[in-house]
User: Fold this.
Amino acid sequence: MRIPRLPAAGLLLIPPLMWAAGTVVGRVAVGTFPPLAFSFWRWVVALIFVLPFTGRALWQQRTVIVQHWRPLLVLGASGVGGYNSFQYLALTTSPVVNVVLIGAAFPLMMLPVAIIFLRERIGALGLLGMALALAGVLLVLSHGDLQRLLTLEFARGDLIMLAANASWAVYTLVLRKYPLPLPGLQSLTLQIAIGIPVILPFYLWEYAGQGGFSPHASDIAALLFVAVCPSLIAYYFWDKGVQAIGAARAGVFVNLIPVFAALMAILFLDERFNWYHGVALAAMLVGVWLVNRPASALKK
Assistant:
């Protein structure tokens, strides 16, 4: 399957757009799927979609796969098995604003990881860009009143979301430090195949305690959407983008997720457009531009 070539910034705009859309669609289906069931079946459906395109090539590359089984195992467990499962679990005990706020702090977590383990250097413009991007996120989450951030109470789900951030940081670090000699969709297929068994025992534990679920047609449509767009398309372009510009610079694009999600909610859920949405979007775009200037981030 041939994917059109895009500039690095274009590659990394696609994942937050898809992930934001997945968040909005997921909110519509809230209440039908238990969190681990939704995570498990999302990836099972994604594997069914992608395997016909990659299965034969993967069999031909089996020697290469065996040689790189360690990074593949970590990528599948952290990116597919870990992050989304932690996120869905966090949403069961924490307000959405808490979960999104903690998720938006990912670039701050990724920056020291990239500096320590990847020896990436971030210039002054890059730091300014990250600060602007984070400020935009906080503006959206506080609805223009930053005092609201001081009243947040962190519940068990907030700590679970920190675990999700840590899982995604591990995924991004390993992806950069141990690049796989496999095309993107083949690598993603393997990660999904590894991640599903990681989720399975926890899903079975959830099923034993909560029982099954009976989704409606709209819930099935939502599951199909998140299985293809946020799961396959977004992950493919994220992997390509990280390889192109580095983990620290790529991490700032995650800050666009709440902005895109807010705009989609305005367009499709009839939510009001407020002044802070426009200011936050401008801050995000300027922040991403600063981080991706040649002088902003250098790699030794």
About this structure: The chain has one domain: 29-299. Residues 296-300 have pLDDT under 50 and may be disordered.
